[in-house]
Amino acid sequence: MALTISSAFDAGNIRVVKQDGFSADLEIVKDHLSDFYQWFYFRVAGAGGREVTLNIVNCAGSAYPNGWPDYKAVASSDREEWLRIDGTSYADGVLTIRFTPETDCVWLAYFAPYSMERHHDLVATYASLPFVGYESLGKSLDGQDIDCLTIGDGDLNVWLYARQHPGESMAEWWMEGALEKLTDGDDPVARVLLRDCTFHIVPNMNPDGSRRGHLRTNAAGINLNREWHAPSAEKSPEVLYVRNAMDETGVDFAMDVHGDEAIPANFLAGFEGIPSITDRQTRLFKLFSENLERISPDFQTSQGYELAAPGQANMSMSTTQLAERYGCVSMTLEMPFKDNFDLPDPLYGWSPSDRNSSPSPASTLCTRSYRN
Ligand SMILES: [Zn+2]
How far is ligand 1, taken at its centre, from the CA of residue 96, in Å? Predict the structure, then answer.
């Protein structure tokens, strides 16, 4: 039996450079029309019970080289449970993955994948509920719908959107958890939220990049989170349609869900440095963040991004653009690819299978603190 490596499937990404028995040199493929790369997802077949050595040789030039030290790849034989591979190591720009698959078909990835097929399962599950509304906000360049689910009857318009960066699959796992929580009729917090707020939920802002196995861009190689000041139908229709829909409803609270390659922690990024920042916005953002830290050991505020100086915010990003445009409280939630090193899980790392309590650990990060 020979080793076979393939990635010609939904969200797949790898190129085989060289293969010698049960060892192979691999490269991650750049996003189409872009230089970004870091997401990988492929199948290893025909190696059950044999030690396999895989070298991803182009890691030094990836989007976030600091993402590789202390990182462990994930593997699954059923594509449901994704376990960290202990024999992952990084040196001199090469990520080496050494392991012995138990079965003849095993899938490896940068993080537990969230395929477009699973996305459609998610939309089907929630769009079928009588109290959940569905709308396509428009089509991507590849012709996929930008799906939006609406829940609740309240006056406050809350926008939750994820996966502007398609390789950050934890963002859509988070959405799965958030939707499960919000639609749980036995949950008193969810009931209050749906009474006071109308939730507009875009679980996947970048279906083309997701299906194509991109890290960071859409079908035209555009980073959607640098388009919010001037989205266009030619380059960034995904942003244009979502922003237009936001203009119609207004926005009181917005959360943009992401993953961070390098920082092994959960953290928020805010809107410091926007031109018209108000004390109210700053106070509410701080209140949210403090409450989150109080209720979730998986959240912290000591690690994160540098704050922009007054007037120096990058207004092409959604969080800053929305805070400025609507005077709202807006934030980016970042979750780790590696793990939360303050509360590590050697078996799964940060993962959708949740050492905590629901399918998406971070769902509680967001929704619980609304009650305060
Ligand atoms: Zn991101």
Answer: 25
Beta strand residue intervals within 195-297, DSSP E: 197-202, 253-260, 267-269
Question: Under a CB-based contact definition with an 8 Å cutoff, are residues 315 and 324 in contact?
Answer: yes
Strand stretches in the chain, DSSP E: 4-6, 15-20, 23-27, 41-45, 52-56, 74-76, 83-84, 88-91, 94-99, 105-109, 132-139, 145-151, 156-162, 197-202, 253-260, 267-269, 329-336
pLDDT surpassing 90 at residue 94: yes
- Residues 72 and 52: their CA atoms lie apart, in Å, by 16
| Rounded distance from Cα 267 to ligand 1 centre (Å) | 12
Write phi, then psi, for 320 (nearest 5 degrees): -70, -45
Q: Ligand 1: distance of its center to the CA of 188 in Å? A: 32
Ordered DSSP codes for 6-28:
E--STT-B-EEEEEETTEEEEEP
Residue 295: CB atoms within 10 A of its CB come to: 15
Q: Which of 242, 239, 334, 322 is nearest to 281 (CA)?
A: 322
Q: Which residue, among 28, 57, 89, has the nearest Cα to 215 in the 3D structure? A: 28
> Which residue in 172, 238, 293, 334 is the catalytic one?
334
Is the separation of the CB atoms in 258 and 175 below 8 Å?
Answer: no
Structure-token pair, residue 168? 């950050």
Residue pLDDT, tens place only, 285-295: 999 999 999 99
Tell which residue, 40, 41, 43, has the closest CA to residue 77.
Answer: 43
Neighbours of 8 (CB within 10 A): 9
Q: Active-site residue 334, yes or no?
A: yes
Return the H-helix or E-strand segment holding 315. none
Q: How far is the CA of 263 from the centre of ligand 1 (A)?
A: 12
145-151 vs 132-139, strand pairing mode: antiparallel
CA distance 108 to 347: 15
Output the CA 110–ligand 1 centroid distance in Å.
14
For 46-58, what is each residue's pLDDT tens digit? 999 999 999 999 9
Amino acid in position 267: F
Q: How much is the pLDDT for 354?
A: 54
**Whole-prediction pTM value?**
0.95
The span from the CA of 328 to the CA of 282, in Å, is 10
